Amino acid sequence: MRAPRLFPLIRSRITAAKLAGGCRICHFSVQRNHIHLIVEPPNGPRGKATSAAVSNAMRGLAIRIARAVNKRLGRTGSAFAHRYDCRELTTPLAVKNALSYVIHNRRKHARSDGEPEPSGFLDPCSSVAFVPAWSRQSRYADPPRTPAARDPVAPPRTWLLKTGWHQKHGGLDQYAKL
């Protein structure tokens, strides 16, 4: 999925779905055979309605990606081995850890595959450019920039994902050891 002929298709489907069903795709990382997403559920009470909205949005995104990939490769069938796994993030530290995992996931896979990791590598197949605070020392987000319609991700609206994670635990370390 990271191949130059496939990634632009996948990114365009993520961009189109970034506000689907009231859910907001705020961060992503495309790997060879799977995708990590950080998604904000729709506003409203938590529970079955929220999880159904997330499930429907993820199902729709998977279908759009599978159709585009299959068309490009001239094949049919499923593009994903199984449905998505979902975990609710309820604390600033959980959000920071999940964000770090998603943003640095390519480094983890490269290391396990024995591939060299360039110094200062920032994954072009992720939403790393939209992470607001990099310095581990920073307790404040970078100055907000105006989101553009062409951005592949939606700006977060919840305190946890917008500012809470770095106010409480500092920014991400660009060179974190995974």
How many strands in all? 2
Span between termini = 22 Å
Supply the number of structural domains: 1
The overall pLDDT, averaged over residues, is 82
Q: List unreliable stretches of 5+ residues.
A: none
Give the spatial strand order of the biggest sheet: 1-2
Structure, explained:
By secondary structure, this protein is mainly alpha-helical. It has one domain. It is built from five helices and two strands. A two-stranded antiparallel sheet has the order 1-2. A hairpin with a 4-residue loop joins β1 and β2. The protein is globular.
Topology:
Layout (H helix, E strand, L loop, with lengths): L6 H11 L6 E7 L4 E6 L7 H26 L18 H12 L1 H8 L46 H11 L9
Helix pairs in contact: 1-2, 3-5
What labels would you give this structure?
178 residues; mainly alpha; globular
Short note summarizing the structure:
The protein is mainly alpha-helical and 178 residues long.
